[in-house]
Amino acid sequence: MKIVLDTNVLVAGTLNPRGTPADILNLILNEAVTVCYDDRIISEYRGVLKRDKFKLDPDAVDTLVIHIEDLGERVDAKPRAVAIHDPDDLMFYEVLESSGADFLVTGNTKHFEQVKDKRIVTPAVFMGKYFK
């Protein structure tokens, strides 16, 4: 199964090892799920996880992101002419469309309401579909 992982889910999974986002992160690291990404997403992962407010070890962040790159699938995403609530999130939708991934997993489904795509799901909904 292939997914696109919104940064907010990665951050939540990194900060709280017992939540649903952490379960998704474990699926990725155990190669049960493949993350589709492009260079913009990888750059955002690194930048956000290294913010001072999260107090994460920068070397650990680099290691995690390198694992995601190594285990995942790099995509050359094609631009999409769609309007979404937060234009900074458009890259996730573009990778979803270009990769043919099964789901975009995000904690902010409202940011994608305008595209009305049933593949855009919360972490809890994704886990329900994964274990179905």
Give a verbal description of the structure.
The chain is α/β, with parallel strands linked by helices. It has one domain: 5'-nuclease (Rossmann fold). It contains six helices and five strands. The protein has a five-stranded parallel sheet, with helices on both faces. α1 packs across α2.
What is the structure about, briefly put?
With 132 residues, this protein is α/β, with parallel strands linked by helices.
Beta fraction of the residues? Answer: 5-15%
Instruction: Write down the overall geometry.
Output: globular
Number of structural domains: 1
CATH class annotation: Alpha Beta
Order the strands across the largest sheet as they lie in space: 3-2-1-4-5
Determine the CATH topology. Rossmann fold
Which residue ranges are poorly predicted, with pLDDT under 50 across at least 5 consecutive positions?
A: none
Which secondary-structure class do the elements indicate? alpha/beta
- Which CATH architecture is right? 3-Layer(aba) Sandwich
The SSE string, one letter per element, is EHHEHHEHEEH
Mean pLDDT: 96
